[in-house]
């Protein structure tokens, strides 16, 4: 019995020694707040004759700072907060509001442990972009026009890869009425586009049965649950501004014009999309859109009809 007790005591002593050897101390190091932030800007085409650029609206940004790990940028503090992640602190942004406007740019710089610093800078940029007037008339009737997803036609909803060379929903396309059983809100939602004056446009979303969307980080709509399957979710509707911008996809066969939604309270058709809806085709009664999904390798397609 004494030998057994000695052996047990020795085993426990070794166990304590090894446990002590395996213990790890985790240390984030000094949480140094980023400092000396600089927002470098190059307004494309800017010279003595064109102090606000060449009319393309393009501005090249480069953010630098001491003790920086990651960067975000908000392109205009005069609109809803919408910071964009910049892995290397560099990006080219196209401002598209026609005319010459001053924008307040905010850089958010993150350091170790998530500590952050911000800096703002004002820039004045000229944009000469104007969409084809026929597109504006077809979309808004030069006053107001309401649209909905056209459930009666094949391919009213579909998905394919987000790449310039593929411009059809090659992965999947919906059959007529395919989403009626699971997601009736997809077909009952209405989208009213209004022209209130020169370069003054708004979108009102009326969705009595909820918003058709994915959940969590895959949607920007307010009030959607943090998890759950694709479905109809409670959504009180919303109204927000939109603008016409040059299409950024580089895809062939489109009008070259996109609808860019402002803020996060509105959507068109499906709530798990980014904010730029490229107009592939539009007539007074028919609209075909292509838009990048929040799962950014996906290009989604929507066919809508006017009411």
β-strand percent reads: 35-45%
Q: Are there runs of 5+ residues with pLDDT below 50, and where? A: 1-21
The general outline is globular
Sheet bearing the most strands, described?
Answer: 8 strands, antiparallel, barrel
At CATH level 3, the topology of the largest domain is Lipocalin
Distance between the termini: 93 Å
Which structural class matches the secondary elements?
mainly beta
Specify the helix fraction band.
10-25%
What Rg is obtained from the alpha carbons, in whole angstroms? 26 Å
- How many helices does DSSP assign? 3
What is the top-level CATH class of the largest domain?
Answer: Mainly Beta
Can you walk me through this structure?
- By secondary structure, the chain is mainly beta.
- The protein is 11% helix and 42% strand.
- It has two domains: 93 residues, Immunoglobulin-like (Sandwich), CATH 2.60.40; 174 residues, Lipocalin, CATH 2.40.128.
- The chain has three helices and 19 strands.
- The strands form four sheets. The protein has an eight-stranded antiparallel barrel with strand order 8-11-12-15-16-17-18-19.
- The chain is globular.
């Amino acid at each position: 019995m004494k030998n057994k007790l000695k052996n047990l005591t020795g085993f426990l002593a070794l166990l304590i020694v090894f446990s002590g050897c395996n213990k790890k101390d985790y240390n984030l190091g000094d949480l140094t707040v980023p400092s000396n932030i600089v927002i470098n800007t190059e307004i494309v085409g800017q010279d003595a004759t064109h102090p606000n650029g060449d009319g393309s609206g393009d501005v090249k940004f480069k953010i630098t700072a001491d003790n920086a790990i990651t960067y975000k940028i908000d392109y205009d503090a005069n609109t809803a907060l919408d910071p964009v992640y910049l892995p290397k602190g560099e990006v080219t942004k196209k401002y598209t509001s026609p005319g010459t406007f001053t924008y307040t740019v905010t850089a958010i710089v993150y350091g170790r442990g998530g500590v952050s610093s911000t800096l703002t800078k004002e820039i004045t940029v000229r944009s000469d972009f104007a969409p084809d007037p026929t597109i504006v008339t077809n979309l808004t009737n030069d006053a107001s026009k309401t649209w909905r997803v056209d459930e009666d036609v094949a391919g009213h909803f579909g998905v394919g890869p987000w790449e310039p060379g593929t411009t059809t929903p090659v992965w999947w396309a919906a059959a007529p009425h395919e989403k009626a059983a699971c997601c009736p809100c997809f077909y009952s939602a209405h989208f009213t586009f209004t022209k209130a004056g020169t370069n003054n446009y708004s979108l009102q979303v009326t969705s009595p049965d909820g918003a058709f969307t994915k959940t969590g980080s895959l949607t920007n709509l307010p009030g959607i649950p943090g998890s759950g399957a694709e479905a109809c979710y409670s959504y009180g509707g919303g109204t927000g501004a939109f603008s016409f911008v040059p299409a950024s996809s580089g895809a062939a066969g489109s009008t070259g014009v996109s609808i860019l939604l402002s803020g996060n309270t509105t959507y068109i058709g499906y709530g798990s999309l980014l904010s730029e809806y490229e107009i592939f085709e539009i007539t007074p009664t028919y609209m075909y859109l292509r838009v990048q999904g929040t799962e950014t390798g996906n290009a989604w397609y929507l066919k809508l009809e006017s009411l």
